[in-house]
User: Which sequence fits this backbone?
């Protein structure tokens, strides 16, 4: 019987960190991060999520110190004020807030749900998902869905792509303008769809894989063309707006690409950056990145404040449920270990007693049953009070008592290396995961 582990988390997100700091914390991707964390001492499960707005990691360990140590090098080059560390309860609540869009740059945006699911599958493929993180992430996704079906938290501007277009519209007149969307992923697709609702006369979708760009171009009603990234130097000078959202690790739009351009606004919503910041030094060229979208998203937050309060109420209810389930599981682990150990001792002593009684004369079935009932009653009476104490300890977050009980009744504590007296203790700590006797269960339910 092994103790149910606790979650520890670390977050580098847009609320406290810059784009560069989020990028620095991202490492080599979700799978590499999870694999690295699983190799650290005491880590049983690991989960990571990396988006343009956040880089986060979570681990499950039996000891909180192991969790803190494992995550201590997650963002070594990021200033302390940009790194938020989370304990078990904070991690559960934070994941729910992230899935609900409350922690997004654009409050209530829908894109994060898909990003969390993808991060979960990648973490699972890397061997990082176990029972604790499965419950935590599944619950977070459930809360995210509730938030969007039971409130209007996602009404209006709900993605970085749409926020970028809103920002562009406040800077330039898009009527009959030409827009270039660089990247055919989810954010690029959302940007193209949002542009489709404006007065632009042409949308050009550029992507490393042209067929993917063609797919996005077919998604919009505005005249659209699909091109390769290699065509950008020829396309950008004629554009009024450029929105970049690729997953490239390298810069995609270089300063030379805007040479000869007139008035052009470039909005970079990629992580890491797509647009070389030096491009903004060219006359007539304005470059915005994720940090610059804050004003657009601030207005969105103000309009959604009431819906956010409704979502927070949902989170409070769901957090109480999962914490209560977690507490019950922790107590049940210790109680099950306790009864399992007692059951082994009971079985061993019953065998001894029956052998002695048989040597004194044949036993009837009724006599055997009487002796077995006596053993069950003794175990039940002796363990009834400790059972209550363990459940009370879980309810009061007294995890030290739970850990002590699990150490005392750890089935891996065998008698092979112990003396005679210690062997009896070890015997009491081993056995199968049988439930408490019915008599005790009934008594506890009264």
Assistant:
């Amino acid at each position: 019987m092994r103790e149910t582990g606790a979650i520890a988390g670390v977050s580098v997100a847009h609320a406290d960190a810059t784009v560069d700091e989020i990028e620095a914390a991202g490492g080599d991707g979700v799978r590499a991060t999870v694999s690295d964390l699983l190799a650290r001492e005491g880590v049983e499960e690991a989960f990571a999520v990396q988006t343009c707005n956040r880089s986060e990691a979570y681990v499950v360990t039996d000891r909180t110190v192991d969790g803190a140590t494992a995550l201590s090098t997650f963002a070594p080059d990021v200033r302390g004020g940009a790194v938020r560390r989370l304990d078990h309860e904070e991690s559960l609540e934070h994941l729910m807030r992230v899935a609900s869009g409350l922690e997004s740059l654009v409050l209530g945006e829908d894109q994060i749900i898909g990003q969390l699911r993808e991060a979960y599958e990648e973490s699972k493929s890397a061997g990082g998902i176990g029972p604790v993180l499965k419950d935590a992430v599944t619950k977070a996704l459930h809360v995210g869905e509730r938030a969007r079906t039971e409130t209007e938290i996602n009404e209006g501007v709900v993605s970085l792509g749409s926020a970028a277009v809103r920002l562009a519209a406040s800077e330039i007149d898009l009527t009959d303008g030409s827009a270039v969307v660089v990247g055919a992923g989810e954010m690029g697709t959302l940007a193209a769809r949002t542009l489709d609702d404006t007065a632009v006369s042409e949308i050009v979708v550029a992507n490393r894989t042209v067929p993917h760009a063609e797919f996005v171009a077919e998604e919009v009603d505005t005249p659209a063309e699909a091109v390769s990234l290699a065509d950008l130097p020829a396309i950008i000078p004629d554009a009024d707006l450029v929105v970049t959202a690729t997953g490239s690790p390298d810069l995609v739009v270089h300063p030379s690409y805007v040479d000869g351009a007139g008035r052009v606004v470039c909005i970079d919503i990629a992580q890491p950056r797509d647009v070389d910041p030096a491009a903004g030094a060219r006359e007539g060229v304005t470059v915005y990145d994720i940090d610059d979208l804050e004003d657009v998203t601030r207005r969105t937050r103000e309009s959604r404040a009431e819906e956010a309060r409704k979502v927070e109420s949902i989170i409070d209810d769901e957090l109480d449920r999962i914490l209560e389930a977690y507490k019950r599981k922790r107590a049940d682990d210790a109680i099950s270990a306790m009864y399992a150990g007692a059951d082994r001792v009971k079985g061993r002593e019953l065998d001894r007693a029956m052998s002695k009684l048989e040597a004194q004369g044949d036993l009837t079935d009724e006599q055997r049953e009487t002796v077995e009932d006596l053993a069950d009653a003794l175990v039940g009476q002796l363990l009834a009070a400790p059972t209550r104490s363990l459940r009370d300890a879980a309810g009061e977050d007294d995890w030290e008592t739970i850990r002590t009980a699990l150490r005392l009744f750890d089935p891996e504590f065998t008698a092979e290396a112990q003396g005679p007296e210690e062997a009896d203790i070890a015997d009491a700590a081993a056995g199968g995961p049988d439930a408490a006797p019915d008599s005790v269960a009934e008594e506890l339910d009264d």
